[in-house]
Amino acid sequence: MTTPREIQTARWNEPVIHQLGREGARGQRFPAPEAELPRVTLPESIMRTDRPDLPELTEFEVQRHFLHLSQMTLGMMGVSLFGTCTMKYNSKTAEYATLRPELAEIHPYQHPDTLQGVLEILHDFDLILRSLSGMDQFVFQAGGGADAAYTMTAVARAYWADRGELETRTEMVTSIQAHPCNPATAAAAGFKVVNLPLEENGYPSLDALKAAVSERTALVMINNPDDMGIYNPEIKEWVRVAKEAGALIFYDHANFNGVMGKLSARELGFDACMFMLHKTFGAPKAGGGPAVGAYGCTDQLAPYMPAPLVVKTGDRYALDDDRPKSCGKIREFWGNVPQVVKAYAWARGMGAEGIDLASDISVVANNYMDHRLAQIDGVVRSNPDITAPRMEMTRWSLAPVFEETGVGTFDFANRMADYGIDPWWMSHEPWLVPEPFTPEAGELWSKADIDLWIDVVAQIVREARETPDLVKSAPHNQPVAQLKGDVFEDPEKWAMTWRAYLRKFA
Amino acid sequence: MALNNTGHPWMALSAPGAIEDMLAEIGASSVKDLFAQIPEDHFRKAPLDLPPQLASEMALKQDLLGKLKKNHTCEDNLNFLGAGVWQHHVPAVVDEIVGRTEFATNVWGSYQSDHGRNQAWFEFSSQLGALLKLDVVQLPVYSWGCAIGHAIRMAQRLTGRSRVLVPQYCDPERLSVIHTYCQPSEMENHIEVVEVKADPATGQIDMGDLRDKLGPNVAAVYFENPAYLGTIETNPADISAAARACGAETIVGVDPLSLGVMMAPGDYGADIVTGPVQPLGVHMNCGGGVGGFIASRDEERYVREYNGFLVSIAQTQREGEFGFGLAAAHQNSYGSREHGKDWTGNSTYLWAIAGAVYMGLLGPEGFRELGQLILSRARYAQALLDDIPGVRVLWRDTTFKEFVVNFDDTGKTVAEINDALRARRIFGGKDISHELEQGQCALYCVTEMHSAADLRHLAATLTEVCK
């Protein structure tokens, strides 16, 4: 165990952009209208007569302002073992390829003859995902993992409507530990949500599933392994139980990293699955998208997928938009195409052997972390009775430290940043484990990175005991000090725009 | 388990011996031991069938460019396609900032450690709020259609009513998304989507039909300004007043690039405003650059119905310093699962940063200049095209950047004309003949990118191919 050193991030004291610049400054000019162009005046009832209250800055001032903001963003430039999000290297080769006009400056309504390259990449990547999952068809329209879950609910609606059973198949069954997007999208799609509690072994019991599933069940949505790092060994029985009731069963592959190349959703019996290209497949998540939830399903469900789909006839690629049973569009156009290209690049760069190795590394690295974290007095693994090695992440608890010192998981998250470590992921709601944290190493980080991360946790445990106020008042070396939280639920004080701020406080 | 003999540039622990060292520290004899939770018969039987690994950057780049170069671009061709994705100028500084690795990263961060990104997000909302003249702007959702879908569902929750009025001339992509969000009729919370007729003389909403269809069961009226076919609603305040009189919400969709010359929707009675973010500094990206914003007045009844991230400015513990955090966060699906407002997740937040940079560069004069230039060039194009024998512009001189061109009197179909244009390196307007029931029609989009000479070239080429 070594003692980590604190860092100091940039602190530019950067004003809000509205506070910068001066009247008349220009950051962008447009060509003067050619002499032959008509002067156009809109009708008064729709003409803008006021000057929008926008800042006025030169081009350099805008560039400098946003470079300052980027420098005041830790953004994984230290070590981030942020669980459930699978931190990866995002290839600049792929990034730069997507910035080229051959992708950036093409329009989805161009004639397919002029889009053969991008269609080929989408087609080839569909085949890669089919091999990884065993599914028969993928679509990339969904703008994230949650949107792919929503796609599943829309496909299920179309499937049941086509069978005349949508009025009776009204329920979606999931686990209380499933990602919130599964119950939330099912509810937004109009289904009643049935949450199964976890048993002592870390997953819902088969008996609970059997009791919940019936002729009312439209769909079961489940991830495996879950965010605790626990794999449900009864998953094949789950599939059987769901199918005996006639229900569809969907594999949320958010936690694919530890099992990629090892498991096939189709071989396990699932009807559909989704992959997050902005996590598992190396496209940047960019602080919250643009992202892609790649949705794949069997031939039985494929007619209900959102359109268009990419098809290949001979050596030509085309779009199939003539799908009368389709659930309709989840989102306009084909999806976040640049992210699909980046995911394709990741899969090609890795190859089958690289993907298999990466899942090995994910699980080995996580077990190495578990091994070292277990040596820190005051942190405990969730479900301590389950001694089997966890998968690619493990849910831990800071409860003993918290009970002893009053320093909790939020305080730790803030303090970690002072050592250049991105604040850790705690847990999705509901918190089944007190004071949770959930590290995941993935295949990116070196042993030295992982050791530093654990040394920082150990250091903050020491600080919690010796100088608890230091931790509770963190961060100290970040662009700004700890936020006061009083405004966020107060309609008199919250301000989501500068004009609202001026109205309330100026 | 994989054979480990050569280091891979994207995996530190792929170096020879690295895994073995860790296994030794853990006390495990093999990688396989660590997969003990998975029953043997769960492991896949079918071998992975993937194309060969391209571990060298050179080989990967060659593969990517070899494929991408088969595309024909709107840089090398003269493009008039719009309809949800529009070709606008993207300033170089926008590309630099959104490409910064601190922003284009996987991590979520915290209020303090990722302060700069959160400030950029707030500045997106602040500048867009200034254009819209509204005090609350949420970070963008997946697309404009998704923004309209959420806004309609907000209106349903606000009013307890389940019918929405939309214009007859609605983009079929957006309308399909709206139908998805409004649920099939079998579902309990289904929202009925009713179309309001267009006035054939103007393309604008038929006020008589609107008044006939408004009633105590209408949750919201949705209209766009400019609309799908480019037409401008010249009396939007009348529409919102009619909606308000019936207790319905007014939801408007606007093109943010029109707001230097067109009245802010906050000034004509809009309750919830939506629109696309792609025009604000995002490349077309084959449709993969879209996102949609939602905005409203700062009234708690609206704020409590948002589905996603609302970034608020806040004080820090250091005197005189500000930071940024999420307001009303518990109501989203992260906080409340199935009881949350619709759902949220990863969205299109990098484009909020693009938009913040773009709006910062343009400023008030840039938006005015841009709006005037688009109007002038689009009207010039209309005049040129309307002069071509057999070619007719619908609702001429009443539109913003898009307009409908009818080709009936040329005796040719839009498909034939567009094929001929493509052979001459022009991407003609979107073929909407099957949507409109107005004969052979195309939706042309003219922006600041089209010089007067470009437009004359279009007209000359069309004259030739329509003969």
Overview of this structure, please?
The complex is a heterodimer of chains A (506) and B (467). Chain A has helices at 59-71, 92-99, 101-104, 116-133, 145-162, 181-188, 206-212, 235-244, 337-373, 399-405, 409-416, 447-466, 468-472, 498-505, and strands at residues 137-139, 171-175, 192-196, 217-223, 248-252, 272-276, 293-297, 309-313, 316-320, 380-381, 396-397, 436-437. The two termini of chain A are 51 Å apart. Chain A has a seven-stranded mixed β-sheet, sandwiched between helices. A three-stranded antiparallel β-sheet of chain A has the order 10-11-12, with no helix packed on it. Chain A is built from 14 helices and twelve strands. Chain A is globular. With 506 residues, chain A is of the alpha/beta class. Chain A has two domains: 94-349, 3-Layer(aba) Sandwich (Aspartate Aminotransferase, domain 2), CATH 3.40.640; 355-472, Alpha-Beta Complex (Aspartate Aminotransferase, domain 1). By secondary structure, chain B is of the alpha/beta class. Chain B has two domains: 78-86 and 365-465, Aspartate Aminotransferase, domain 1; 93-359, Aspartate Aminotransferase, domain 2 (3-Layer(aba) Sandwich). Chain B is built from 14 helices and 15 strands. In chain B, the strands form four sheets. Chain B has a seven-stranded mixed β-sheet with strand order 2-8-7-6-5-3-4, with helices on both faces. In chain B, strand 3, helix 6 (172-182) and strand 4 form a beta-alpha-beta unit. In chain B, helix 4 runs parallel beside helix 11 (349-386), helix 5 runs parallel beside helix 6 and helix 11 packs across helix 14 (452-465). The relative contact order of chain B is 0.13.
